[in-house]
Amino acid sequence: MKIGELAQATGTLVETVRFYEREGLLPAAARTESNYRVYGEDHAERLRFIRHCRALDMTLEEVRVLLRFKDAPSDNCSGVNELLDQHIGHVAQRIRELRALEKQLNTLREQCVDANTAGGCRILKKLSDPGAPAVAGGGHRHLSGTH
Length: 147
Hints:
The chain is mostly helical. It has two domains: 3-58, Multidrug-efflux Transporter Regulator, Chain: A, Domain 2 (Orthogonal Bundle), CATH 1.10.1660.10; 78-138. It contains six helices and two strands, in the order ααββαααα. A two-stranded antiparallel sheet has the order 1-2. A hairpin with a 5-residue loop joins strand 1 and strand 2. It is elongated.
């Protein structure tokens, strides 16, 4: 199948397929005489695996490690358990950070119970306060997969 067909079959953007190839997570596809990439079912299966890992908020490096285990089926899988335990710890930490962020946002929201003019808005004033904390939870961005 061509790259567009692989993308459609796996619910992946074409550019994401190319990205995973550049990152070495997806093996390079064979090329036709006219230089089109040709993918097989093994590519689709591997891409589904990668996407499932990413949906679980795993980093590219965590996915690489899991793929190495997947590519060596006779190896002991204790490293998979260790990786997942570490990932669970990252998720638990992120949940704590998000709860702290929620608390900060609720405190901020309590600054303004009635609608006011923007010039008199206590939320905007609080956000402009140089003494206010810049970011809750140690500076994580508002994106998944940032641990």
